[in-house]
Structures are given as structure tokens and as C-alpha cells.
Design brief:
By secondary structure, this protein is an all-alpha fold. It folds into 2 domains: 176 residues, MFS general substrate transporter like domains (Growth Hormone, Chain: A, Up-down Bundle), CATH 1.20.1250; 175 residues, Growth Hormone, Chain: A. The chain contains 16 helices and no strands.
Length: 377
């Protein structure tokens, strides 16, 4: 068995995170082409996009137990290669039904890869005996930027969507082939039951992950509307807030391992949660654009290392098998991204978008409020 504490295993883990971010981002530039090809309205397209989430959540529920039984390596390799193989079909699906099925498969591959690579990352970090999770997660963000930029560049050069997606798929497959022999043969294989209901500290960790992912989803889906409705920026500049959030999120994760090693998990959760909540308060209470935009910087910086720390804690707790715990954390976390923005929409319709974001700020305070409890040895 390959040692978990080797540069090769760390490289393989980074490549898995890179492929996951790259793959999902390659789909974003293809969405307008799919809408035009199928001649569907926005409502139908929205239902089709839900298929990614449905496939991801279904796969996540199964992946934790499977990784616990058989190890994360076969799941990472299989789901990574599946992600690469399915991507080109997104550019040629000829009917809404076909696209829905392909999106389900695409989401399933992405969900399986997400859970398995985090299980593998926890094992590698544990062997290294120093924080590595933030750096691993930063590769997902970098992969997302690279995937979107690569596909957009290919399409702007008048390269057909199918050819562009095949090129991106080839890059993903090469990365997985490089990672394959360097992955751990059996990361924490467990002979226990296939399904374990989340309980104890794992349930609390999963709820905190869901809240943090909800904040990330809100930044993506609602932040532009929030600041433009408040007349803080022009409609054409609505996306600047999310850009600032993404920059500090990625930077925070790139330097997060060194920060966490210095501060510890408790101070990272405490400070990160308070910073993120303060950022939301700045956006909501500031009458001028510069102060409000600074809030986006604080949210990205504060939230950047919360989820990596929660994954590390899920991997080291003793309440349930680590693979099951990480599967639960990932599933509930993604539920925050998938369901959360819709919930914000319902709250906004009832009492206004600013009030919905004030509720989100209060929810983020759950992270510092429970920091001591979840980091207690």
C-alpha cells in the first residue's frame, strides 16, 4: 500500500479536487448552447438544471458507505473518468429528456467524486499531521476558474461545443490517469454496515457545513440582486460583489493551511464565522458601495476555511466511521447549496431580500457559537 504521507499522494488528491472543479465549470458556458439547441424556456431549463443536484445528492448518499467498504481510490478513479466521459454528451443531447438523463449522470459522477476525494484528503492530511484541507479545497476553486476559462476560450475561437467539450474531457482524463497510481489503495476501509444514520457530533458538523454552503450559494445566486436593489451599484456591475467574494475565498484557502496550523481549528472556526457574519452586516447596513463591497471580501475570507476544518473534524471524530461522516457532511452541505437559495427566494418574497440575508447572518453565527463544542477533544 502506498504511504499516505508522500508528495505523490498529495498530488493525486489535488488533481482529484482540480478535476471536480474543472468539470462542473466546463458545463456553465455550455448552458446557453443547450437552451438554444433544445428551444426550451427558462422554467424548463431550471427543472433540467435540478437534475445535476438530484444526481449529486443521490450519489453522495451512496458514496460514503461504498468508500468505507471498498476504499476511496476506485470511487475517485471511476467517478473522475465518468465525469470526463459524460461531459461531451451535454453538448449534443437533442431532447430535454436526453439532457435530463445526462445531467443526472453528470451530477452523480460529480457527487461521488466530491465525497470520495474528501475522504481521501482526510486520510492524507491525517498522515501528514499538519493542515492540508484548505489547500486541497483551493484546487477546486482554481479548477473551476480554469474549466470555465478553457471552455469559454474554445467556444470564442468558434470551436464547436462538442469538440471543445472533448478537449476538456481529455484534459480531465489525463489528470485522472496521473492521479490513479498515486492514490491510496485503501483509505480507511471499514467492514461495518453500509449505511449509518448521521448522529452525535457528525450531525452538528453537517448542519454547520450546510449553513456555510448556504452562504456560498446565496453569494452566487442573490448577492447581485441584493446590492443592485439597494442602489449600491449599477445593474451592469452587479456581479462585482461575487467576484470579490470568489477572490478572497480562493486566496483564503490557498493560505488557509498555514493559517489553521498557527491558529488551530477552534480559532479558525470562531474567527471565520464572525468575519463572514460581519461581512453580511456590512453589505446590509452600509449606505455606500465601498463599504458594502468590503463585506464581500470579509465573507469570502471568513468562509474560506470553515468547510475544510469541518471536513477535518468529521474525519477525526469517533462517533461514526469517517467515510460515513464525510458522506453525511457533503450531502447536507450540498443540500444547503441546492435548497438554500430557493429558501432565500421564498423568504424574500414574504418579507424582502434584505431580511432573508439578515436571517443568513444569524445562521452563520452558529459556526462561532459551536466552535468550542465541535473542536473539543
Amino acid at each position: 500500500m502506498i504511504s499516505a504521507d508522500r508528495p505523490a499522494t498529495r498530488l493525486a488528491t489535488r488533481l482529484a479536487f482540480l478535476v471536480a472543479g474543472f468539470g462542473i465549470a466546463c458545463w456553465a458556458p455550455l448552458v446557453p448552447f443547450a437552451k438554444q439547441r433544445l428551444a426550451v424556456d427558462d422554467a424548463t431549463l431550471g427543472l433540467l438544471l435540478l437534475c445535476i443536484g438530484a444526481g449529486s445528492v443521490a450519489a453522495m448518499i451512496a458514496t460514503g458507505p461504498l468508500s468505507a467498504r471498498y476504499g476511496s481510490k476506485p470511487v475517485i478513479v471511476g467517478s473522475g473518468m465518468a465525469l470526463a466521459c459524460v461531459l461531451p454528451f451535454l453538448s449534443v443531447a437533442a431532447t430535454p429528456l436526453e439532457l435530463g438523463v445526462v445531467l443526472l449522470l453528470f451530477g452523480g459522477a460529480l457527487g461521488s467524486l466530491d465525497v470520495a476525494m474528501n475522504i481521501h484528503a482526510v486520510e492524507v492530511e491525517s498522515a501528514a499531521q499538519r493542515p492540508l484541507m484548505s489547500g486541497f479545497h483551493s484546487l477546486f476553486s482554481i479548477g473551476g476558474f480554469a474549466g470555465s476559462a478553457t471552455m469559454t476560450l474554445l467556444l470564442s475561437l468558434k470551436i464547436a461545443a462538442l469538440v471543445g467539450s472533448l478537449i476538456c474531457s481529455a484534459l480531465m482524463a489525463v489528470a485522472m490517469l496521473i492521479a490513479w497510481p498515486r492514490l491510496l489503495s485503501s483509505a480507511r476501509v471499514d467492514e461495518g454496515p453500509l449505511f449509518v444514520r448521521p448522529h452525535g457530533i457528525v450531525l452538528l458538523l453537517a448542519v454547520l457545513a450546510m449553513v456555510t454552503f448556504l452562504a456560498e450559494g446565496a453569494m452566487l445566486d442573490w448577492s447581485a440582486l441584493l446590492i443592485t436593489q439597494a442602489s449600491l451599484v449599477d445593474t451592469r456591475m452587479g456581479g462585482v460583489g461575487y467576484i470579490l467574494f470568489s477572490i478572497t475565498m480562493t486566496a483564503g484557502r490557498l493560505f488557509g493551511d498555514r493559517l489553521t496550523a498557527r491558529l488551530g481549528d477552534y480559532r479558525t472556526l470562531m474567527g471565520g464565522g464572525l468575519l463572514a457574519a460581519l461581512g453580511l452586516v456590512l453589505i446590509l447596513a452600509s449606505p455606500v458601495a465601498p463599504a458594502a463591497l468590503a463585506g464581500f471580501l470579509l465573507i469570502g475570507l471568513g468562509a474560506s476555511n470553515i468547510v475544510p476544518v469541518l471536513f477535518r473534524l468529521a474525519g477525526s471524530q469517533k462517533s461514526m466511521p469517517p467515510a460515513h461522516a464525510i458522506g453525511a457532511l457533503t450531502t447536507l452541505g450540498y443540500a444547503g447549496i441546492l435548497v438554500g437559495p430557493a429558501a432565500i427566494g421564498f423568504v424574500a418574497k414574504a418579507v424582502g431580500l434584505p431580511v432573508a440575508f439578515w436571517v443568513l447572518a444569524v445562521l452563520l453565527l452558529l459556526v462561532p457559537a459551536n466552535a468550542r463544542r465541535v473542536t473539543r477533544k
